[in-house]
Amino acid sequence: MDGLRVMEDGTYLDGTFGRGGHARGVLQRLGTGGRLLLMDKDPEAIAVAEHGFGADPRVSIHRGSFTDLAHWDAVRDGLDGVLFDLGVSSPQLDVAERGFSFGKDGPLDMRMDPDAGESAAQWLARAGEAEIADVLWTFGEERMSRRIARAIVARRAEQPLTRTAQLAELIASVMPRPKAGRHEIHPATRSFQAIRIHVNRELADLEAGLDAAHAALRPGGRLAVISFHSLEDRIVKRFIARHAKAPAGNRRLPETDAFEPTLRAIGAARKGDAAEIAANPRARSAVLRVAEKLGAPGLGTRDPGLEEQRREGQQRQQGRIGVCSSRVASLFRVPSPASRVPPTTERRP
Question: Is 181 annotated as a binding residue?
Answer without folding.
Answer: no
